[in-house]
Amino acid sequence: MKYPIIPQPHLKGLDKVEIVDRLLKRRPVETEEFYYGREYKTFYYFHRLFEDMDLESWIELAGEIYLHVMKPGKEGQPPRLARFDFKSSLERWYSVTTAHYCIDCYRKKRALALYDNEEALESHMERENEEEFGHAEVASVIEMMPNVRYKTLMQLRYLEELELDEVAERMNMEKTVLYRTHERARAQFFSLFTRIYGVQAKSKNVRL
């Protein structure tokens, strides 16, 4: 898959502290190179994943995320980007931030589309544990899994739909080790899914 991309000469050689400083200062050249060059894969991926967000292209999503991370916080707090703690890579932070933004938009849109009064919305919340969640939600949660090995395993098994034997070969793992790792990866996935969606994730309502 080839993505549209622009050159990034003004970002070359900069570390994440310097990049964040330029973004917070709203430097137009560096901002354009970062959002439409350095981070294009993140926005392209999540735009494809959440196709029903009413955004025409990944470029629109990039603009939405720019506003999301640059607007001042509540009660005089600095914007989200200014609160980046530099403990992770900037790329991972944008990936997680974009995922949360898309999931939040998806959940709000689903609630508004299906329910137009408080009583119906309360009924929906009571039934939410029984609802099915599909590929988009599963993929976005896997993308945010903190353990890289678990994340890779889940991607190969449930997104690429490989058999466990094939996953073991791709990851160069003994089958017995893979099976134990698979169970731990699933446990981490369901725990993270529950935290993100606010419902108790179960095998019966999350299509793995």
Radius of gyration: 19 Å
Mean pLDDT: 81
Largest sheet: none
Shape summary:
globular
Question: What amount of the residues lies in strands?
Answer: under 5%
Element pattern in H and E: HHHHHHHHHH
Helix content: 55-70%
Unreliable segments of 5+ consecutive residues: 114-118
What would you note in describing this structure?
The protein is mostly helical and 208 residues long. It folds into 2 domains: 16-105, no CATH class; 133-197, Winged helix-like DNA-binding domain superfamily/Winged helix DNA-binding domain (Arc Repressor Mutant, subunit A). 62% of the residues lie in helices and 0% in strands. It starts with 15 loop residues before the first helix and ends in an 11-residue tail after the last helix. Residues 114-118 have low confidence and may be disordered.
